[in-house]
Amino acid sequence: MDGGKGSGGRHAYIGSFTSAGGAGITTAAVHPGTGALTPLGSTDAVADPSYLALGPDGTVLYAVAELPDDGLAAAFSLRDPAAPAPLGTPRPVGGGAPTHLCLAHGQLFTANYASGSVSSLALNALDGTVEGLRGVLRHRGAGPDPERQEGPHAHAVHPAPAGRWLLTVDLGTDTVRVLDAGHSVGAGGSGGAVGSGSAGDCVGAGEAVGAADSVGVGDTVGPGGSEGAGDSASGAPRVHHETVLPPGSGPRHLAFHPDGRHVYCVNELASTVTLLTWDSAAGRLAVGPSRATVPGAGGAGGASAGGTVEDGAGRFAGGGGGAGAEGAGGLAGGADAGGAEGAGVAGVAGGGGVANYPSEAVVSADGRFLWVANRGHDSIAVFSLGADRVPSLTGAVSCGGHWPRDLALDPVTGRLYAANERSGDVTWFDVDPADGTPRRAGSISVPAASCVVFADGHPARR
After folding, report:
1. Which of 19, 158, 253, 303 has the most CB atoms in a 10 Å sphere around its CB?
2. What does the pLDDT look like over 49-101, one tens digit per residue?
3. Enzyme group, top EC level (predicted)?
């Protein structure tokens, strides 16, 4: 760690890809009045910390190391919030290219894109260190896109509000799986099939597997789906239910509405956002309507021309606009900086014919607005949310850079922050309370920026 001194004030933590020139985890002070970020220092103690999450009391910061073959999970002490310090030893997650993580039921869960799996890791109850792998849930299936959906690609794992469930989003299989995280608490329970035709099975010794395998540490799944050295006390979560989205959607991330009953799923390949209705008692999702995330695109994300993006100073056609923006022919270089995503695949063309790959969704604290980051179109789509919670696209503004990989809402001030990966900056926006339109307020340089987390946004630190 270099640069930052002292622990007073508010802080944000910015993940970035060290393999693309990023500093790792950058700490920034948050100005109390303007929301402006001032970098204080950085640590590259782990490679490619592309996604970050706070521990349950806000005193520990967790990161994935998005390494293509053998990803890691690491912990950092926030004893001095201005200077995160490595806490314990980074631990293998048992999968490749972990892109997302969350904490639930006293454990750490990661979504592993390259291997199409979800891992659970034990945490030390006293100091929060990552103790080791408990189990791996291996997704199965494929989608219609031969390049991006040749197999499962778990992209995110989200805890459902106030319950036992986790929701895991798989871009490769066009599914959102509801996982029973409570199963993995303690000894984990005995293995056994969830049910005939289920989306996945938590298998014990010698049992056949279904669409996904939940296996203990050291377990293997052989050809044809039979398990090797089984562990009936697997620490992996079980698949409880599977929700299937339209073929080729490519679901990436989720955002819950504050009412806890509605969820918005960002679909990377279709350039849409889908409304899902959540039944917490049953642990099930119902699929609602989808809306395009790019102005001028069809209702299901189809291509059309003529969309516009407002940049705060005027309007310009098409979007894109950042250095090296791609046309409709696909990604230049074919991947995010961390290398998780596939090569040379054309995304859905929206306004201006720009290939687009939405990345993240954020819902306002009052539940009136939804924002979605568009990579390629390089915009932030603005949706109004009515009483029925169905999103209505009202416009889009420039993200302030190129390739917005993440959006974050400051839970204290309500300002919006975009981590623009390929232009290497974090841009922040004031939000118009009347119509939800973000207005660019400033930016800082953060090479290969991938996510933003606000430490003092945690309830324990407010």
Report:
1. 253
2. 999 999 988 999 999 999 999 999 999 999 999 999 999 999 999 999 999 99
3. hydrolase
